[in-house]
């Protein structure tokens, strides 16, 4: 069966089968997850030579390692002999991996080191079977990306305008770097991965889905997405999109973007002013981005999410708190606020998760066949940088996602 | 254990009575009743990725002080906490109750649990070991600390929005 994506993905609606069809899911693995750039982690998770941590790229079990030269590699966790896992610990420090089945050993860069009873292979050094490696690994602002395609657009090309949003995140650190060192919550949902992606920059739902927590905490987040908001949703191209909340934050005081005031984080604010001079005000007022980097990295101001598809109707969303290098005072608050919001018991994300699980059950219904994504199409405009923008609660980001998805699935883009 | 500590400390029957009651209030979504069990210095903690993490530096599933417990309860009571609206059908078994130690005015109690949660998503089993700190308050007993270590704490978890 050849799926006609141009029929299933139209400018203002997408077909329900895109979330339920096994064949489409299988094709997505080939055309998106095993070809384009997928975010797998952050260099700070393997800070020292020999550090390793297990990761997933869709269903692929990979080991992120740091060699003694400092290079970060992604090795496939599969022995070159008979396929056993060479690494079963989730994290650790070792310059080698030893397969437990027949004792073959490998360097943490993937090269074979040796194998027992070598006469069976005609003597020492006769075999050169290495661990599989993800062909292309690159980093941006410390985020580690993987591409299973040996060639194709570079990471920089893939990120396009989204790179600037990761820069905005990093510049919040007094040392210009973020770290992801707080470990990950793994939140499992019975929903197609695209429902999660769509939800991430959907500014239409917060007031409804999160009304319960906004009402009891007095949070102003809901109004950022109201009809009166000056915030915008921006299609950054390449399937990336953002909710740009800066137009609202600019009306507020420094650190209000984080729901706090400078008096409560004096050391951090002082460090930022010392480092950035006058430009510090802009940074402290505008705060962190809210950006979805196609296909699986989502930064929601203080939290970093990596989406991992498991099956057509199952996804794991990994999430951790942004930690700013050189800002211990902020980091405790970032961690605490992140824990309160996200993950299986989070006051925000548990309700989002409930919505995409209900979506998944709903789209199984046969009629109507389509999901509507037209909100705000009539009032979209092009901003001064050439990006398509809509109101804070328009579906501009979703339409950008689908148009890129379609070109990948039709083989017109990589 | 001195006579005084013996009076401050709880015996295992008293501890069990308290744990069973706490379990029933949670299972039956008696939010006010459950919240009233906590002391002002309360800590409610569900670690992620093992049981020996540092909650001040590592992500946890839940790490609530008394103030955040109150927020969590208020959110549930809005009726629009969709992850618990409708609420899960729950029943839990508590067993292997042991008095671990008495520290000052707190009796530290350990117990295993198995919770069956039924929602439209399906039935989920949650199992693990909980550690409680119980404190006498007049004729009552209060809960100062509850740490819930899931056997699945290192795996991907479905939404856990009920009171565990
Ligand atoms: S499968 Fe790894 S050594 Fe045989
Ligand atoms: Fe949401």
Automatic annotation (TrEMBL), chain A:
Regions crossing the membrane: none
Annotated ranges, domain Rieske: 37-146
Listed GO MF terms: 2-halobenzoate 1,2-dioxygenase activity
The organism's place on the tree of life at top rank: Bacteria
Enzyme Commission number(s) from the entry: 1.14.12.13
InterPro entries: ARHD_Rieske_2Fe_2S, Rieske_2Fe-2S, Rieske_2Fe-2S_sf, Ring_hydroxy_dOase_asu_C_dom, Rng_hydr_dOase-A
Pfam families in alphabetical order: Rieske (PF00355), Ring_hydroxyl_A (PF00848)
Record key words, sorted: 2Fe-2S, Dioxygenase, Iron, Iron-sulfur, Metal-binding, NAD, Oxidoreductase
Family: Belongs to the bacterial ring-hydroxylating dioxygenase alpha subunit family.
Protein name (record): 2-halobenzoate 1,2-dioxygenase large subunit
Organism placement in taxonomy: Bacteria, Bacillati, Actinomycetota, Actinomycetes, Streptosporangiales
From TrEMBL, chain B:
Enzyme class: oxidoreductase
GO molecular function: biphenyl 2,3-dioxygenase activity
Keywords on record: Dioxygenase, Oxidoreductase
Lineage top rank: taxon: Bacteria
EC number: 1.14.12.18
Pfam family, one: Ring_hydroxyl_B
Xref: SUPFAM superfamilies: NTF2-like
Family listed: Belongs to the bacterial ring-hydroxylating dioxygenase beta subunit family.
PANTHER family membership: 3-PHENYLPROPIONATE_CINNAMIC ACID DIOXYGENASE SUBUNIT BETA (PTHR41534:SF2), BLR3401 PROTEIN (PTHR41534)
Entry protein name: Biphenyl dioxygenase subunit beta
Organism name: Nonomuraea coxensis DSM 45129
Lineage, uppermost ranks: Bacteria, Bacillati, Actinomycetota, Actinomycetes, Streptosporangiales
């Amino acid at each position: 069966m050849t799926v006609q994506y141009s029929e299933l993905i139209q400018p203002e609606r997408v077909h329900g089968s895109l979330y339920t069809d096994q064949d489409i899911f299988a094709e997505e693995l080939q055309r998106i997850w095993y070809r384009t750039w997928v975010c797998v982690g952050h260099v700070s998770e393997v800070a020292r030579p020999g550090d390793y941590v297990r990761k997933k790229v869709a269903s692929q079990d990979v080991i992120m390692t740091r060699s003694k030269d400092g290079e970060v590699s992604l090795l496939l966790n599969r022995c070159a002999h008979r396929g056993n896992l060479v690494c079963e610990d989730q994290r650790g420090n070792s310059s080698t991996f030893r397969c437990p089945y027949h004792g073959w050993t490998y360097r943490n860069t993937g090269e074979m080191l040796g194998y027992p009873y070598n006469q069976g292979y005609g003597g020492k050094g006769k075999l050169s079977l290495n661990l599989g490696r993800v062909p292309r690994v690159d980093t941006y602002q410390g985020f580690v990306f993987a591409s299973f395609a040996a060639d194709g657009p570079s990471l920089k090309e893939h990120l396009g305008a989204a790179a600037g949003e990761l820069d905005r995140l990093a510049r919040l650190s007094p040392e210009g770097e973020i770290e992801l060192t707080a470990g990950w919550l793994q939140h499992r949902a019975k929903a197609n991965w695209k429902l999660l992606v769509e939800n991430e920059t959907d500014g239409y739902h917060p007031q409804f889905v999160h009304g319960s927590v906004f009402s009891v905490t007095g949070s102003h987040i809901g109004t950022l997405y109201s009809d009166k908001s000056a915030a915008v949703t921006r299609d950054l191209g390449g399937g990336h999109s953002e909710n740009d909340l800066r137009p609202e934050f600019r009306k507020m005081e420094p650190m209000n973007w984080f729901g706090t005031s400078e008096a409560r984080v004096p050391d951090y604010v002082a460090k930022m002013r010392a480092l950035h001079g006058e430009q510090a005000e802009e940074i402290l007022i505008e705060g962190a981005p809210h950006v979805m980097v196609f296909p699986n990295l989502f930064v929601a101001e203080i939290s970093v999410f990596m989406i991992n598809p498991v099956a057509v109707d199952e996804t794991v969303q990994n999430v951790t708190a942004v930690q700013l290098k050189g800002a211990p005072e902020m980091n405790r608050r970032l961690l605490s606020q992140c824990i309160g919001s996200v993950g299986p018991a989070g006051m925000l994300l548990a309700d989002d998760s409930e919505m995409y699980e209900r979506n998944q059950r709903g789209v199984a219904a046969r009629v109507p066949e389509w999901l509507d994504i037209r909100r705000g199409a009539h009032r979209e405009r092009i901003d001064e940088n050439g990006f398509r923008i809509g109101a804070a609660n328009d579906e501009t980001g979703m339409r950008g996602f689908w148009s890129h998805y379609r070109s990948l699935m039709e083989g017109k883009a990589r | 254990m001195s006579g005084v500590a013996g009076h401050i400390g709880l015996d295992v029957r008293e501890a069990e009575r308290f744990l069973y009651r706490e379990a029933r209030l949670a299972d039956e979504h008696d939010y006010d009743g459950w919240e009233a069990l906590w002391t002002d210095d309360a800590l409610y903690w569900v670690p992620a990725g093992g049981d020996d993490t540092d909650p001040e530096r590592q992500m946890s599933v839940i790490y609530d002080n008394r103030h955040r417990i109150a927020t969590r309860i208020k959110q549930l009571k809005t009726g629009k906490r969709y992850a618990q609206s409708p609420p899960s059908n729950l029943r839990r078994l508590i067993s292997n109750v042991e008095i671990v130690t008495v520290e000052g005015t707190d009796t530290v109690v350990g117990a295993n649990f198995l919770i069956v949660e039924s929602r439209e998503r399906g039935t989920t089993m949650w199992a693990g070991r909980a550690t409680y700190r119980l404190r006498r308050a007049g004729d009552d007993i209060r809960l100062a600390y509850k740490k819930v270590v899931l056997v699945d704490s290192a795996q991907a978890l479905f939404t856990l929005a009920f009171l565990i």
